[in-house]
Design a protein that fits this description.
The complex is a heterodimer of chains A (110) and B (112). Chain A contains no helices and eleven strands. Chain A is mostly beta strands and 110 residues long. In chain B, β9 and β10 form a beta hairpin. Classes of the chains: A mainly beta (110), B mainly beta (112).
Chain lengths: 110, 112
């Protein structure tokens, strides 16, 4: 089955710095790569997604890059703010299933 | 438009008891799924359904059953609860697996 690995498991940055979270996957047929943000005690919510026909996608301070040949994709958050502190999950579609990474806990220090 | 509704929000069971976690959506989504979330292990797929009458296993299906008799509802049954099933359970829906997932608020389940 699909294997999704996410790194790092925890990330601490100073407010205003950038944060990068990386995921690798194993199914070469995967075409959809979303990122979810989960605040403490809340449901996961989609923040950005990318499809395999696109190499990069941006939405204000958030961007995702995809390298389909190498089977990895990354989330980039610029000018981090304290409200960016949360757990972030990558996910990959594989044979009608959406498989999640193990999550990255991001702490933005004021 | 309520989105995805999960009930109950909290539940405590004794080992060996059975129960059903309810999930309903009002967005006419074909795809529904159940995940469990444990510390440090992310969201693991239990079962999923691509439409009414069709279900299939995810990554961790053992000890759980599902059915999909209508488009709106996708209940998750624990047949004989075990302490290892203590977790937070999320239901999600979308048109297909490769579309943004709408999550419910979760059910926090403790098994003693």
């Amino acid at each position: 089955g699909e294997n999704v690995e996410q790194h790092p498991s925890t990330l601490s940055v100073q407010e205003g710095d950038s944060a990068v979270i990386k995921c690798t996957y194993s199914d070469s047929a995967s075409n959809y790569f979303p990122w979810y943000k989960q605040e403490l005690g809340k449901r996961p919510q989609l923040i950005i997604d990318i499809r395999s026909n696109v190499g990069e996608k941006k939405d204000q301070r958030i961007a995702v890059t995809l390298n389909k040949t190498a089977k990895h994709f990354s989330l980039h958050i610029t000018e981090t703010q304290p409200e960016d502190s949360a757990v972030y999950f990558c996910a990959v579609d594989s044979s009608y299933k959406l498989i999640f990474g193990s999550g990255t806990r991001l702490l933005v220090r004021p | 438009n309520a989105g995805v509704t999960q009930t109950p929000k909290f539940q405590v069971l004794k080992t060996g008891q059975s129960m059903t976690l309810q999930c309903a959506q009002d967005m006419n989504h074909e795809y529904m799924s159940w995940y469990r979330q444990d510390p440090g292990m992310g969201l693991r797929l239990i079962h999923y359904s691509v439409g009414a009458g069709i279900t299939d296993q995810g990554e961790v299906p053992n000890g759980y059953n599902v059915s999909r008799s209508t488009t709106e509802d996708f209940p998750l049954r624990l047949l004989s609860a075990a302490p290892s099933q203590t977790s937070v359970y999320f239901c999600a829906s979308s048109m297909t697996a490769d579309q943004p997932q709408h999550f419910g608020d979760g059910t926090r389940l403790s098994i003693l």
